[in-house]
Design goal:
- The chain is an alpha+beta fold.
- The chain folds into two domains: about 150 residues, Fructose-1,6-Bisphosphatase, subunit A, domain 1 (Fructose-1,6-Bisphosphatase, Chain A, domain 1); about 110 residues, D-Maltodextrin-Binding Protein, domain 2 (3-Layer(aba) Sandwich).
- Helix content is about 30%, strand content about 30%.
- It is built from eight helices and 18 strands.
- It has a seven-stranded mixed sheet, with helices on both faces.
- A hairpin with a 2-residue loop joins strand 5 and strand 6.
- The protein starts with a helix and ends in a 7-residue tail after the last strand.
Length: about 270
């Protein structure tokens, strides 16, 4: 039987290697920016990181198909994916807009999806060298620098009626619907981050709620979702009211709300 926690640590090293390739391009003047069919940007760094990740995953003793944002059309087809019970879900550079802005808020995301659920997650932040990882039933961890000892992380416990809750918002996507959601709280404090770092703020207990009432894709959330679950949080599909699911025919997420350890039972105490 595969030790998923050990596997997550191995995948973390692959993410670090991809991050090193990203930084090589980050430190140049030519990002090689292209626009994809959905008008989202693609850079040399996205492609370089994807090549490193796919090569690294294929060298592991544990093998599963790879579904990547920058993969081929054939790899992304539902005819193929619908037959899979498990697969790697990869976003080689999450937060490409933040990368282009040079604000550091971009990540490497690698998740293992099994039967529609994220069971292993790795999120690496190249600029700060912070690594987050998790395995189902084994906890969520952060490593603040190479060689440092992993530390267990936990989401913050709270109720939705608490004052001064920290609500995470995107640096690039703060729409009217999101602002209306934030306005429901009693004197909320806004925490602005980019990429999957928004969800990491919940997982490490630095924030409480993240409303994502705008489009995302499954590869944007899979790795961070796995980590948040193991830290004690959840990500609720705003359409179904249930935990976000993966490997749908269309790889676009419904709007969702991510929470730390929300404890509504405390309101009855």
């Amino acid at each position: 039987m595969t030790d998923y926690l050990k596997l997550a640590e191995e995948v973390g090293e692959i993410a670090r290697a991809a991050g090193a390739e990203i930084l090589k391009i980050y430190d140049t003047e030519d990002f090689g920016v292209e626009m994809k069919s959905d008008d989202s940007p693609l850079t040399k760094a996205d492609k370089a990181a994807n090549a490193v990740i796919e090569a690294g995953l294929k060298k592991l003793a544990f093998q599963a198909p790879i579904v990547s944002e920058e993969g081929t059309k054939e790899e992304m087809s539902y005819a193929t994916r619908s037959q899979l019970t498990r697969f790697w879900l990869v976003d080689p550079l999450d937060g490409t807009k933040e990368f282009i802005k040079r604000n550091g808020d971009f990540t490497v995301n690698i998740a293992l999806i099994e039967s529609g659920k994220p069971v292993l997650g790795v999120v690496f932040t190249p600029v700060t060298d912070e690594l987050f990882y998790s395995a189902a039933g084994k906890g969520a961890f952060e490593v603040l620098s190479p060689g440092a000892k992993p530390s267990r992380i936990f989401a913050a416990a709270f109720t939705m009626k608490d004052v001064n809750l920290k609500v995470v918002a995107s640096r690039s996507h703060l729409n009217e619907e999101t602002q209306n959601f934030i306005d429901r709280f009693d004197r909320p404090e806004l925490v602005q981050r980019g990429s999957s770092l928004k969800i990491m703020e919940l997982a490490r207990g630095n924030a409480h709620v993240y409303p994502r009432l705008a489009p995302t894709m499954e590869w944007d959330t899979g790795a961070a979702h796995a980590i948040l679950l193991e830290a004690g949080g959840k990500m609720v599909d705003d359409t179904t009211g249930k935990e976000l699911r993966y490997n749908k025919e269309i790889l676009r997420n419904n709007h969702f709300i991510a929470y730390g350890e929300v404890r509504e039972e405390l309101l009855a105490c």
